[in-house]
């Protein structure tokens, strides 16, 4: 009986992870195809009414969205957590009477670590940081996709646009932890097993926003994120590389050709540990100077490097591993 339960747990974990992996890149296009298809059927009134409502509701994503505890607490997320397994580590308190910008590194292929940790309660974020609400900030264009926008808002995601960040940091009270994957599309192309590279030397916009609203900066590192998949790396100047760069310029993200452990899509079983660092106190400067932005950006990079070095051994890396910041 025990063996059967183990096999069933393994099966459920695999199905749950497959669902998560397929949902992130494919659910959006599937929603678009479905709505267009329905427009040419006898059910054309349904997508028509939805599009009218979506137009009326277009500002909701940038006004805090519509997060629901029901979606964030789905049992499927705990199965995703157990598949790797995935763990959240707290190194310092986050005061619920303050707001924060959490910079999450690295992007990885699909940012599964960030998604599971900050858009669900599978890793116990609210238990570790009582009174603090995590909000993963993602591409604004995703909130224009019919139906898909409802799903990402339900998980607590918000656009990574200036109006959205401004609303969350000035009109949604305190205890907001805005999670931004700083490296973005450029960093996803560096996602190679055993490599710890982040793109952020020229990424200073999040620091400027933090200064404008007095939100403390918090570095976060997801050990194991780059080990989930094996990416096909195209040489610079090749046809594949040029296509990725063009797609990234147009769409805001880069398509990655990758393979998993099995079934092509299934990620490798690799421990993933998301470590939340100590807050960097940031003053309120409605119009920060470039010198102030550079100063706190430098403090953030130093804090990120320190966080990486302090926890790399306990998270499965050797002492010789170094963090490459570009």
TrEMBL record:
Pfam families: DAGAT (PF03982). GO terms for molecular function: diacylglycerol O-acyltransferase activity. Keywords: Acyltransferase, Endoplasmic reticulum, Lipid biosynthesis, Lipid metabolism, Membrane, Transferase, Transmembrane, Transmembrane helix. It is a multi-pass membrane protein. One of its GO terms (biological process) is triglyceride biosynthetic process. Its EC number is 2.3.1.-. CDD domains: LPLAT_MGAT-like (cd07987). The chain crosses the membrane at residues 26-53. It is an enzyme of class 2 (transferase). It comes from the Eukaryota. One of its GO terms (cellular component) is endoplasmic reticulum membrane. InterPro entries: DAGAT (IPR007130). It is found in: Endoplasmic reticulum membrane. Belongs to the diacylglycerol acyltransferase family. This is Acyltransferase. It comes from Oncorhynchus tshawytscha (Chinook salmon).
């Amino acid at each position: 009986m025990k063996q059967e339960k183990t096999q069933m747990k393994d099966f459920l974990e695999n199905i749950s992870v497959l669902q998560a992996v397929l949902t992130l890149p494919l659910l959006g296009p599937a929603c678009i195809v479905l709505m267009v298809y329905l427009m040419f059927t006898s059910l054309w009134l349904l997508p028509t009414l939805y599009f009218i409502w979506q137009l009326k509701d277009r500002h909701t994503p940038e006004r805090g969205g519509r997060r629901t505890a029901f979606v964030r607490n789905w049992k499927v997320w705990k199965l995703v957590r157990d598949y790797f397994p995935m763990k959240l580590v707290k190194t310092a308190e986050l005061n619920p009477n303050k707001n924060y910008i959490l910079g999450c590194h690295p992007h990885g292929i699909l940012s599964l670590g960030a998604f599971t940790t900050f858009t669900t309660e599978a890793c116990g974020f609210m238990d570790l940081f009582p009174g603090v609400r995590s909000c993963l900030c993602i591409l604004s264009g995703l909130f224009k996709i019919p139906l898909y926008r409802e799903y990402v808002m339900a998980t607590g995601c918000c656009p990574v646009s200036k109006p959205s960040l401004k609303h969350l940091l000035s009109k949604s009270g305190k205890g907001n932890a805005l999670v931004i994957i700083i490296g973005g599309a450029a960093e996803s192309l560096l996602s190679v097993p055993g490599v710890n590279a982040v793109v952020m030397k020229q990424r200073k916009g999040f620091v400027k926003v933090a200064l404008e609203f007095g939100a403390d900066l918090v570095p976060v590192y997801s050990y194991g994120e780059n080990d989930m998949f094996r990416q096909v790396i195209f040489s610079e100047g090749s046809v594949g590389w040029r296509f990725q760069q063009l797609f990234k310029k147009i769409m805001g993200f880069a398509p990655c050709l990758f393979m998993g452990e099995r079934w092509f899509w299934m990620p490798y079983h690799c421990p993933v540990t998301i470590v939340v660092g100590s807050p960097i106190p940031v003053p309120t400067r409605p119009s920060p100077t470039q010198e102030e932005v550079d100063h706190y950006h430098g403090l953030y990079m130093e804090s990120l490097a320190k966080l990486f070095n302090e926890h790399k051994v306990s998270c499965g890396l050797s002492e010789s591993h170094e963090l490459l910041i570009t």
